[in-house]
Amino acid sequence: MESGTANRGNGVPENLKQQLAIAVRSIQWSYGIFWSISPSQPGMLEWGDGYYNGDIKTRKTVQAVEFNADELGLQRSEQLRELYESLSAGESSGQIRRPSAALSPEDLTDTEWYYLVCMSFHFDIGQG
């Protein structure tokens, strides 16, 4: 790792989402995903982080604030992560709890759904 580059303790750089955002926007992709080695299952790849830059069906915000494209993408990526965590927690506890301005599954485009579902993927050595 480069000196001066902080990480989250799992080998993922702190500024990874910003780096993904720059890369994804520069080549006009809908999203970018960083897969990392699982700390709990060595040899397994799992979701490290991601940045969503695709179409948005429904915008939900807490405040009525105008966002530039960078902020909008970062906000949407975070909202999708929160929805995934909410749905995952609800699956194990039977209760689905969402923040006040959270997305609902019906708010998502097909691309947003795929991005969200990717958060649950794990890849073993030699798979895919």
TrEMBL record:
It holds the Pfam family bHLH-MYC_N. Keywords: Activator, Transcription, Transcription regulation. Residues 16-128 form the Transcription factor MYC/MYB N-terminal domain. It comes from the Eukaryota. This is Transcription factor MYC/MYB N-terminal domain-containing protein. It comes from Punica granatum.
